[in-house]
């Protein structure tokens, strides 16, 4: 059962052998020392300036980078926006008025069709976690926990909107040389592109999206409104 705390993100891996690999012993995970995305509480203007600075340089080595969208993107637009750059993660966020919703990161293989299908993958994962009948999240003998009921309702709405194909892609983790990343930053639909140093290792960095609705500072939005019907 999913439990969303309001700050945690959901990560979904879409690679062959994920389920089988989960049954095997795993080596100790490396500590992620690099980060793509804004810091908690950081002024948005400061992050945008920091992103521009990260693209300076003349080396031709490939860099991992985060593209932050100016507004929610249709997943079908990903191949045209990225212009052939390798996409490794699709960051999805379904905005609901005055309701906190999770950031969902879908890890995709090097296949443009998989990136375009990221919302459907995320929706399927959430619905599978909720169960075929929609888990009520409480013991039927006891009074339902309002917080859990609200959380489950929110997940159902989020999954439904993803399944319907909403324009809810808010970021992409891509890989390319600095000149291509600078070009990407200037394309319509791109709000910012932040690059890591060329020596940053795959899987050894964390990713936090800059949401389109975050205009002044990177802070959580309100969570005091009713969950809308699906």
Task: Explain the overall architecture.
The chain is α/β, with parallel strands linked by helices and 230 residues long. It has a domain at 10-15 and 34-134 and 148-199. It contains 7 helices and 8 strands, in the order E-H-E-H-E-H-E-E-H-H-H-E-H-E-E. The protein has helices at residues 18-22, 44-54, 78-82, 112-116, 118-130, 146-163, 178-185, and strands at residues 10-13, 34-36, 63-73, 86-93, 103-107, 169-176, 190-195, 205-207. It has a 6-stranded mixed β-sheet with strand order 1-5-4-6-3-7. A two-stranded parallel sheet has the order 2-8. Helix 5 (118-130) packs antiparallel against helix 6 (146-163). It starts with 9 loop residues before the first strand and ends in a 23-residue tail after the last strand. The model is unreliable at 3-8 and 14-31 (pLDDT under 50).
Instruction: Report the strand count.
Output: 8
Bin the helical content. 25-40%
The SS-based structural class is alpha/beta
Give the rounded overall mean pLDDT.
85
Strand line-up in the sheet with most strands: 1-5-4-6-3-7
- Sheet with the most strands, sense and barrel status: 6 strands, mixed
Taking the alpha carbons of the first and last residues, their distance comes to: 20 Å
The total of helices stands at 7
Rounded radius of gyration (Å): 18 Å
Q: What is the ordering of alpha helices and beta strands?
A: EHEHEHEEHHHEHEE
Strand content: 15-25%
Which stretches of 5+ consecutive residues score pLDDT under 50?
Answer: 3-8, 14-31
- Given the C-alpha coordinates, what overall shape results? globular
